[in-house]
Fold this sequence. Notes:
The protein is mainly α. The protein folds into two domains: 4-116, Winged helix-like DNA-binding domain superfamily/Winged helix DNA-binding domain (Arc Repressor Mutant, subunit A, Orthogonal Bundle), CATH 1.10.10.10; 118-150. It is 67% helix and 8% strand. It has six helices and three strands. The chain has helices spanning 4-28, 33-42, 50-57, 61-73, 95-113, 119-143, and strands spanning 48-49, 77-81, 89-93. The radius of gyration is 17 Å and the shape is globular.
Amino acid sequence: MRGSDDLMYLLTRAERLLSRRLAGILDTHGCGPEAWRVLCVLADGKGHFMTGLSERVSLPPGSLTRLIDQMVEDNLVYRRGDDVDRRRIRVHLAARGRRLHDSVDRKVRASIAELPVGDDLSALLNELITALDVKSSQISIHSGRLPSGG
């Protein structure tokens, strides 16, 4: 393997191994990886529209809606109309969701702390994501296609 094949393999393999490592922690709390990603995004306390949340957690809108419905039923999140545009709905972390996030987050951070992952890797991955996102948007615009998620 050379070049982009190497990068794709390495990123995929790292993601799968990390997911497997964290699955044990999530399972003990009855939290799946998709729900965990939602909790992490909502932990900023700002509340998020479904469209933005869908993109951030890498779930199609229909799947996210079903997940949010279940999370509302489990009292982990709640929906509220936007203050500016009442037709739009924001999803917020409920108190129970905050407690779950905080408890799992401590264990996840402890598990990751022993890995050789530092600020340098995070910075490089953020740069890569930004570069890929910009290029995919430019390619989509030049080809006449809408960027994904838009």
